[in-house]
Amino acid sequence: MQTDKQNLDSLTKEELGRLFPIEIVPPNAKWAELFDKEKKIIIDALGKQTALKVEHFGSTAVTGLSAKPTIDILVEIKSTPDLKDLIIEKMKNIKYHFIWRTDFGPPYMMFVKGYTSSGTKGQTYHIHIVPKDHTLWDAIYFRDYLKQHTETAKEYEKLKYQLASKYKNDREAYTTAKTEFIIRVTELAKKEKIHSHI
User: Domain 4-196: which topology?
Assistant: First the structure.
């Protein structure tokens, strides 16, 4: 009998898109609580010597912003390749499925939970595990800027609803279509941060 992991790994991009359509939902105050609980589980599993910093990012981290109801978590680790197998093993112990990501800056470890071969089950989580110099940390600039600039957050929300409607079953196209906006706002956020320290 195949496991869910084997079933999911054998699906095409199109099949995965149909199984896990993009849905934007209204903001939920519980997202922050879900992050806090999962953060503790991850730190308990990996240890504080491995999980050096754990951040909630993405739209569910911005109060009042509609989002895909997935909790995105960024975990900082040391830049030591020998940690990889140990991290994969420990994350599997807390029911996470490993994905090796090569499509966003340097390759890195990603772990997901809440996906089954019959669709999502319970809360979904995406855990991104990277060293502190990885480009993914730019997402924190973006998150903080949206928190501080309500108009920009609403602009982003409107864009996401439009793209979710257009690319309901194509996660890659949906993500790619948001990239220009995210890069532009991230650059604004970095400039603002620099000026605030001058």
Answer: Beta Polymerase; domain 2 (3.30.460)
